Every structure is written in structure tokens, then in C-alpha cells.
Amino acid sequence: MIEKDVVIVGAGPAGLAAGIEASKAGANVLIIDLNIKPGGQLFKQIHKFFGSSAHRSGTRGMDIGMLLLREAEENGVEIWLKSTVIGLFPGNKVAVEKGLENEAKEVVTILAKKIIVATGASENVVRFKGWTKPGVMGAGAAQTMINVNHVKPGEKVVMLGSGNVGLIVSYQLMQAGCDVVALVEAAPKIGGYAVHAAKIRRAGVPIYMKHTIIEAIGDETDCVKEVVIAEVDDKFQPISGTEKVIEADCVAIAAGLKPTVELTRLLNCEFTFNGVFGGFIPLHNKNMETSVEGVYVAGDATGVEEANTALEEGRIAGIAAAQSLSLIADKEAEEKKDAIWKRLEMLRLGPFGERRLSAKEVVLAEYLNKVGMPQAEIKLKG
């Protein structure tokens, strides 16, 4: 059986950051990811990051990804790609299936002293008539096609959802040569930043507020050729007689994300539910450790936020795991974690710089007060 100090599931921003911090302290680190390339969402993000200089403001996500990969390699982090964690078992045993469908597969078991789950999030879907036809996909899938694989998902695209993902991906689709023929939003106002909405509006993309898709119509091969939209009432129900038909061969759905938490469920970690997070999430303490000792979480698996937050949470988890293995002195570890928490606070500032508890902090604090779980005390500031 293979033995590792720290096994990390997921080679996205949180997983890479955790692996770098743990390996810097001297831990023998293995990161496992099912994709053919490491880096997760970062390599789909060709836009420049917002925020402070501490969070690489003005740097493109793909460039941040390259820096992280280089740092992981320099610090001796081992990464298994095209590998899927198929089970987590008591005693920190990790079952991994290595290899893709068209390759020879091998199942191996790893004994980990510490496990960090950084599995990210998956896209929500919106069901309408014809939603399973070829050409209907998540906005993240469309973004992967254009920014990673350099393939257009279609010539004429309808985007469903006006959050930051819907707005940013719409603009990137246009940069890739696609014609975004409509952006459809059921709510009465744009969900994402106005600066992103203004960019696509100036480019001539029509935005249909208080509308939804009611059908995707297929051609002779059943691929999308037309999209039927309609206005919705205050209960988000389509209003008969308001239908509009739009010629399109692709529908991209940007309806939010939900944390990928199946692996932490296998270990019976304590959970809570909150819609702000994207659904069910595993509870964790200020070290990102779950209610199961030795199992940590980081990034969107703890509740959907954004890449900079995922990076910071990954750093905390990596440092805490190394600290629990006595690879880093308590004083040094606490100083590093304190500095990271302060940066996280900056990311979670309210309007006009007002400090407010994040949704995560509020829900976790309520839970901890209810059950009195000392191990999972959350660090609240301000």
C-alpha cells in the first residue's frame, strides 16, 4: 500500500495551493485529479482578476495557474492526472482508479495521514423541453471548449443566466468568434457585475430580462436549431402569448454552481444546507478541518465563492495539515494562518469597505453555537 503524508483530491486552485503549502513544510504530498491537465478553473479564465495586489489583481487566471503549477513542481508535489478517487474509507484510506476509459485502468489504495478534499463545484442545470439535445450545455463546458480546447461550441449562442459566469463567458464566446444572439435572465435585474453586463451590451447582445427558455427545437439530426423564450410572471412561470423564437445552434446554461461533496459524505462528515453556498456543505473549523479528524476541505467544496477565496482556503488547509503532522512549528503556522485570514476578510468586505460576516461564517457560527463543537470553532473577525 502506498503511504503519503497528505493526499489532496482536486488539482484546482484550492488543491494546488494546499499542496504547495504542505510540501513547503516538508510533507510528502500527492494530488489526484481526474482531468488531463492540472489547474482546474484557472486555465479557463483568460480574463484579468479583480482585487488587491495580494490577490494578483490584473493577472489573468491562466497565468496564475501557470505560476501555481511551477511552484508545485519546484516543491516536489506529486500529481496524478486522469485519476479518479472512487472511495474514502475510515483510517484515511483512499481508493484511486488510474486511467481514462480508453486506457488500461488500475485501482490503487493509498494510506494518507491527512486528506484534503478540494473537489470544487459542478454546474446546475435548467430543465426545459429539449434540454438534453446536442448543443445544450453548461456555460462552464462552453468556456472549456473555447479557452482550453479552442473549439467553438456553436455559431449562434443563447446564454441563459446573467450572473458573472454568464456575462463573462458570453464575452469570451464573442472573443472566440461566436455570435451571442441573446442573454436570457428570469430575474428582473442583472445578477452579475454591471461592468461585465455593459461590455456585452455595448457589443450589441440583446438582454431579455424576466424571460426564460421554454424549448430548444432540434433539426433533422436533433441538434439545436431554434430556441423558444418567453416572459415570466412574478412566480417565474412563462406567460402564454409572449413566446419569441431565436435562431441558435447552442444554449449555454449559467444557472449557478453547487459544491461537489460526495467524498466527504462517504466519511460521514457533519453537513449543513444553505442556498447562498450552493446547497449542502461540510462543516469545518478555522483550520478547514471537518468534523472527521484529519480530513480537511477547501475551495468551492466548502461553499461556492471564487478563485482567490479558494486559493486562500487551500493555503490554510495545507498549513494546518502540515502543522498537525508536526512539520511546522505552531507559532509559525498560526502567524501564517492569521495573515491568510486577514486577506480572506478583505475579499469578503461589504459595501464601502464595511466588514461583515460572510454567509459561511454566519451559518457555521449558528451551527457551532447549537451543537457546541469545540473542534470546529470558526475564527470570526471584526
Please give a structural write-up.
There is one protein chain. The protein is built from nine helices and 19 strands. About 30% of the residues lie in helices and about 25% in strands. It is elongated and about 65 Å long. It folds into two domains: about 1-120 and about 255-375, FAD/NAD(P)-binding domain (3-Layer(bba) Sandwich); about 125-255, FAD/NAD(P)-binding domain (3-Layer(bba) Sandwich), CATH 3.50.50.60. Mean pLDDT is about 85; it is low at about 375-380. The strands form five sheets. Strands 1, 2, 3, 4, 5, 6 and 19 form a seven-stranded mixed sheet that branches. It has a five-stranded parallel sheet with strand order 8-15-9-10-11. Strands 12-13-14 form a three-stranded antiparallel sheet, with no helix packed on it.
Q: Catalogue the unreliable spans.
A: 374-382
Distance between the termini: 47 Å
Q: Give a quick account of the main beta sheet: strands, pairing sense, barrel closure.
A: 7 strands, mixed
In N-to-C order, the SSE pattern is: EHEHEEEEEEHEHEHEEEEEEHEEEHHH
Keywords: Oxidoreductase
InterPro entries: FAD/NAD-bd_sf, FAD/NAD-binding_dom, Metab_Enz_Cyan_OpOx_G3PDH
GO molecular function: oxidoreductase activity
Protein name: Thioredoxin reductase
In brief:
The protein has 382 residues and is α/β, with parallel strands linked by helices. The chain has helices at residues 13-24, 61-74, 139-147, 164-175, 194-202, 262-266, 307-324, 330-347, 359-371, and strands at 2-9, 29-32, 78-80, 83-89, 93-98, 106-117, 121-123, 136-138, 156-160, 179-185, 207-209, 211-218, 224-231, 244-247, 250-253, 257-259, 271-274, 279-282, 295-297.
